[in-house]
Design brief:
Keywords: ATP-binding, Kinase, Nucleotide-binding, Serine/threonine-protein kinase, Transferase
CATH class: Mainly Alpha
Organism: Biomphalaria glabrata (Bloodfluke planorb)
CATH superfamily: Transferase(Phosphotransferase) domain 1
Number of domains: 1
GO molecular function, one term: ATP binding
Protein name: Protein kinase domain-containing protein
CATH topology: Transferase(Phosphotransferase), domain 1
Structural class: alpha+beta
Order of helices and strands: EHEEHHEEEEHHHHH
Length: 235
């Protein structure tokens, strides 16, 4: 259950509207019910394993192989949203829930924005560590902001670290604008580093789209039926 105070009324309405439009995607969290008392109460699909953030920290990084199916499922969620001109704007491990089936679903759509055509916006979005260069600089942005955030997220769930981070705000922004990424030993194959590098392009127009990501060689080892790394049977 998600509880939002009255001050979050706009966020609650946005999330419920987008979730109602996303019922056909198995990779976006489903809303089961909701009501208003003093607060807004939203009942979401059961996620007994919590989030990818919890799993990543518990395992100290999932590694390239274990993260592969999760990455494909999140990409499918983004593709679904982007085809409907919806930006998530806050993709991060804490917003990816692990469902009872062991598969994942993208959640927390309170910051999402539905666009008209190729509309671009400039309002700040994302967290400190996942915010892309165009947002830091105050430039207008579009759906490619989700791709940068997901590139940061994929790096994190693989390695339990961030490719770009500094506690000093100005130095952090400088590192983001520099775009240099160092890969640790958690990255066992060239495919994962190649994919992340193409997602974390400084120029938003050079980033892969969600459709292009799904065609990347990183996902070639996945074969149907897709079995999640962790379920109730092997947890």
């Amino acid at each position: 259950m998600k509880v939002l105070p009255p001050s979050k009324m706009s966020e609650a309405r946005t999330e419920l509207n987008v979730l109602s439009l996303s019922r056909d995607s198995p990779f976006i969290i489903r809303v089961m019910d909701g009501f208003v008392l003093e607060n807004y109460y939203i009942f979401l699909e059961f996620a007994p394993f919590r989030t990818l953030d919890h799993l990543t920290q518990a395992m100290r990084g999932l590694g390239s192989d274990c993260a592969r199916l999760y990455a494909m499922e999140v990409t499918c969620a983004l593709k679904f949203l982007h085809e409907r001109n919806i930006m998530h704007r806050d993709v991060k491990p804490e917003n990816i829930y692990i469902l009872l089936s062991g598969h994942v679903a993208l959640a927390d759509l309170g910051s999402s924005l539905r666009m008209d055509g190729d509309t671009i916006v400039s309002a700040a979005c994302g967290t400190y560590v996942t915010r892309p260069p165009e947002v830091w600089s105050g430039h207008p942005y579009s759906k490619s902001v989700d791709i940068w955030q997901f590139g940061m997220t994929l790096f994190n769930i693989i390695s339990n670290s961030w490719p770009i981070v500094h506690p000093n705000r100005e130095k952090h922004i400088s590192l983001v604008n520099n775009g240099k990424i160092l890969f640790s030993d958690h990255f066992k194959d060239d495919a994962s580093t190649n994919l992340i590098g193409k997602m974390l392009q400084i120029n938003p127009n050079r980033r892969l789209t969600s459709s292009q990501i799904l065609k990347h060689e990183y996902f070639e080892p996945l074969k149907e039926p897709y079995s999640p790394p962790f379920t109730l049977d092997n947890a």
